[in-house]
Amino acid sequence: MTTDNWKEIKAACEAALPADVVAFIAKHQGTEHSESRLIAILHMVQAATGYLSKEQMNAVAQLAQIPLAKVTGVATFYHYFRLQPRGKHMINVCLGTACYVKGADKIGQRLMSDLGIQFGETTKDGLFSLESTRCLGTCGLAPVVMVDEQVHGPVAPGDVAAILNKFTKNGQ
Ligand code: FES
């Protein structure tokens, strides 16, 4: 930001956030912002825009008068906050107990290796986002991987390439 003028900074920050978030922050102005309230604010931002951009986190910090390091610290600590836009296809690896004991971690590692990303990230081409999840309720198919709404299981690390190919071959 290139101005010291608070009015301009405030207006830019307000423009970067959904109106309900701006109103929520304003409503609680002057009271101490607890971590739980900060989490609620970040949830509202993510619900509206799908992820938390640097610009949005900075706007929250400015408007709520919270150090930016605290905002980014909370956003990166909790795995349910996304710091990048969602990919076209969402891959969820179940790390629930039944899947975990059947090697879900190895499937996660293969996915990270093949996609070149970590959990919580999106591939550079925007095609895939990778997440982990709790029990999907299909333990009989463990270990399972859900791509968009479709459950695959039981999945072995060697099946990962074929699953990804379905989406990359046709550029779907
Ligand atoms: S633990 Fe993975 S589906 Fe239940």
Could you write a compact summary of the structure shown?
With 172 residues, the protein is an alpha+beta fold. Helix content is 48%, strand content 10%.
Can you walk me through this structure?
The chain is an alpha+beta fold. The chain contains eight helices and four strands; from the N terminus they run αααααβααβββα. A four-stranded mixed β-sheet has the order 2-1-3-4, covered by helices on one side. A hairpin with a 2-residue loop joins strand 3 (145-147) and strand 4 (150-152). Helix 1 crosses helix 4. The longest helix has 15 residues, at 35-49. The chain binds FE2/S2 (inorganic) cluster. FE2/S2 (inorganic) cluster binds at residues 94, 96-99, 135-136, 138-139, 142, 144.
First-last Cα distance? 38 Å
Specify the number of helices: 8
Strands in their spatial order, largest beta sheet? 2-1-3-4
DSSP strand tally? 4
Features:
172 residues, alpha+beta, 4-stranded mixed beta sheet, 4 strands, binds FE2/S2 (inorganic) cluster
Give the helices and strands, then pairings:
Elements: H1 6-16, H2 19-27, H3 35-49, H4 54-64, H5 68-77, E1 89-94, H6 97-101, H7 104-115, E2 128-133, E3 145-147, E4 150-152, H8 160-168
Parallel strand pairs: 1-2
Antiparallel strand pairs: 1-3, 3-4
The structure holds FE2/S2 (inorganic) cluster.
The site of FE2/S2 (inorganic) cluster has 11 residues, from helix 6.
